[in-house]
Amino acid sequence: MPPKEKVESTEQVLQAVILADSFDERFQPITLETARCLLPLCNVPLISYTFEFLAVAGVQEVFVFCCSHSDKVKAFVKKYEKSSNMKINTIVSQELMSVGDAMRELDAKQLIDTDFILVTGDVVSNMKLDQVLEEHRARRQADKSAIMTMVLKKASPQHRSRSVGDGSLFVLDQGSKECLHYQPVKAFKSTREDRRMTMNMEIFDKHPEIQLRNDLIDCQVDICSVEVPALFTENFDYQDIRADFVHGILTSDLLGKTIHFHEVSDVYAARVRSTQMYDAVSKDIISRWTFPMVPDSNLQVGDCYEYRRGLVYKEKSVVLSRTCVVEEKVVIGANTQIAERAVLSNCVIGKNCIIGANVKIDNAYIWDNVVIKDNCVVQHSIIANDAVLEQGVTINKGCLISFKVTVGANTTVPAYSRLTALAEGEDDDSDAELISDPAVVGATGRGRSFTEAEGSDDEDEDEDPKNKQVNMLAFDMSELLLATKEQEDSASDFESEASDLEEDQISPEEELDREVAATLDRAFQDGHDVDIAVLELNTLRMATFSNFKEMRKRVIPGVLKHIDPAARPGSGKTAKEILNRWGSLVGKMIHDEEDQLDGAYVLQRACATLYQDVAQAQRVFAPALRYFYDEDILEEDAILEWYHSEKSQQGTDVERQLREVAVPMIQYLEQSESEESDDDDEDEDEDSE
C-alpha cells in the first residue's frame, strides 16, 4: 500500500482519542512483554483495526494514550502513520492507572478543542459514524448539557461477540435517545449491590415511557464533548468510563448533564477485552462478519492474502506439503511451512512458522516465528512469537504460551495453563535469570507456569472469581468448579463476621426474596401504579437473571399477604379490594398455559402458608381463584387441570382443604364445558341435515 498524502483543510478537524492501555491483566503473561493493542488479531496488530475504523469515520487527528510498553506502541504508530492520511500523536504517561487518569491527562494537556471520538485500542468495527456524529452535533446545538453519545449495538444474549462475564443494563428513553440509568451486570454476583438495581423514581416523572435493555453490546465507542475530560478532572473518583463516569453523571443532581445513545444493529462492533473475546472476534473476522476488514483486504503494508473456498486465507509464499490438510476457516501467514499429514482447522498461523509432520492444530492461534515439531497437538490455545514445541507435545485447550517458551518433547500441558519465559517477578526489561520448571515444560523445555501476583488484578476484590474464569479462552461453563479448600475456609470465616458482613453472603434466592418483598411493600405503602410496580419487578428480574416462575412464587404471596380475612368492606384490606387494586400485577407474571397452571399451584400453596387457620385461608383462596378466572389470568382449562392433578391433592392438610373449597367453581366450569360441547354437537347435527 503506497503512502498517502496528508490532507490539509481549513474545516474543523475531527479528532479521536485512543486509549491503548486496557488497565487489566487478562492477557498476562503475554502482555508482560508487549502492549495488548499490538497483539496480532488474524496476523494484524489489534490497534490497526481501530485505526482503520477511525479512518473510515473521517478522523483527521488521533491521540494515542499509552503507558505500558510505550516504546513499542510509539514505534508501531510511527510506522503506521506513514501509510495513513491521519495525523497520529502518541501521548506517553507512565503514571496512568485507569481510564480516568488518561482523561485527566488529556484535560491537562489541552489537546482537544472540539467534540471528539473516544475509543479503546481493542475495538474492531466496520460501522460508519456519520449519522451518530450528525445527531450528536445537532443535539449539542440545541442542548449544551448533552455531553456524550454512546454507540450501542443490539445483539442477542447468546451472540458470540458478547462478553460472557461482563454485561450492561441500560435504562433508555427511545423518544429523546437519552440514557437515564446505567449499571454493569456480571454473570456471577457476590454481594447484595451486585444483585440489586437502585434507580431514582423521579425519572418516571420526566420520562413516562422507558426501556430497560440488556441486549446491547457496549464496545465503548463514544462521541464526547470537550467538557468530558474536564469533568474527570473535577471528580478524581471517576476511574472507569462507564461504572464511574456515566453512572456518576446520570445519578448526579448537581452536574445537570445528560448522556445519550445511538443504537446500531446491522454493523459489526466488538472489543477484544479478554481471551474469550479474542477467540470470538478472530472467528468473526475469518467468517467475514467484519467486512471489509478481512484478511484479504490486506490492511497491513506488505500483506498479500488470497481468499479461497472454505474461508481459507493464505499468503502467496506459504509452502504446503501435498499430504497436509487445510480445512475450513484457516489463516496462514507468509513464509510458513506446513509438513506432511499436518491437519489445520479453525486456526490462525502467523508468518515464518514451521509446522511439522502429523501435527494437529484446531481452534488455535499461532503467532509469528513459532516452531511446532512432528506429532504435536494444539487445541484452542494461543502460542506467542518464537515459541517452540518439541516433538510429541500436547497443548490442551485454554492455554497461553508466551514469547520464547520452549515445551520439551512428549510433554502434555494441562488445560488453561499459562507459561512464560520471564523470570518470576520480573518483566521483559529485566535481565534476571529464568529458572525453568521441568514439571511444566519438560526436561529440555524453557519456561515456567505463570500465576498472577496476589492483588495484582485491577478487578474489585469483592468480585466473584467466576467472572474472570468465564472470560478465559475456551472456557466451558459446565467446568466451573468452586469447591476449593480456600473457599471452604473462607466460608467458615464468614460465619464469624459481623452481621452486616454476613448480610452480603446470603444466597441469591434469599436476596431475591428480600428485594421482591421490599418492592411490593414500597408499592403498597406509597400507592404506586401497577405499571410502576411491574417495571420495578421486571428490572429486578433482569438484573438478577431470574425467570417469571421465580417471580410468580414471590409476587403472588407478596400480594396476598396484604389481605386481612377479617377486614370489613371499605377498609381497603378485603380480598376483593386488594385484588381489584393489585391483582393485575399477578397477571403480568403469567403469559401462557404453563404459567397459568403454575400460578394456580402457587396460589394454593401461598394461601395455605400465609393463613394457618383453614377458615381464613379459604376466605382468601376462593375469591382469589374466582378473580383470576374472571380477569382471564387463569383460564378454564388451567383451573380444571390444576384441580384434577395429583399435585393439587398433595401437600399439607390446609392445601388439600383449599382444593375442596374450589369444588363449586369446578362443577360450574365442567357444566359450562359440557353445555358448550352439547351445543357444538347440535350445530354439527343441523349442518349434516
Automatic annotation (TrEMBL):
Chief location category: cytoplasm
Subcellular location(s) of the protein: Cytoplasm, Cytosol
Region described as Disordered: spans on this chain: 443-466, 486-510, 666-689
Swiss-Prot/TrEMBL keywords: Cytoplasm, Initiation factor, Protein biosynthesis
GO MF annotation list: guanyl-nucleotide exchange factor activity; translation initiation factor activity; translation initiation factor binding
Biased composition annotated in UniProt, kind: Acidic residues: 454-464, 489-510, 672-689
Xref: PROSITE patterns: W2 (PS51363)
One term under GO cellular component: cytosol
Occurrences of domain W2 (ranges): 502-679
SUPFAM superfamilies, alphabetized: ARM repeat, Nucleotide-diphospho-sugar transferases, Trimeric LpxA-like enzymes
Pfam families with a match to the protein in the record: LbH_EIF2B, NTP_transferase, W2
Matches recorded under InterPro entries: ARM-type_fold, eIF-2B_epsilon_N, eIF2B_epsilon, LbH_EIF2B3/5, NTP_transferase_dom, Nucleotide-diphossugar_trans, Trimer_LpxA-like_sf, W2_domain
Subunit structure: Component of the translation initiation factor 2B (eIF2B) complex which is a heterodecamer of two sets of five different subunits: alpha, beta, gamma, delta and epsilon. Subunits alpha, beta and delta comprise a regulatory subcomplex and subunits epsilon and gamma comprise a catalytic subcomplex. Within the complex, the hexameric regulatory complex resides at the center, with the two heterodimeric catalytic subcomplexes bound on opposite sides.
Classification via PANTHER family: TRANSLATION INITIATION FACTOR EIF-2B SUBUNIT EPSILON
Family: Belongs to the eIF-2B gamma/epsilon subunits family.
Protein name: Translation initiation factor eIF2B subunit epsilon
Taxonomic source organism: Linnemannia gamsii
Lineage: Eukaryota, Fungi, Fungi incertae sedis, Mucoromycota, Mortierellomycotina
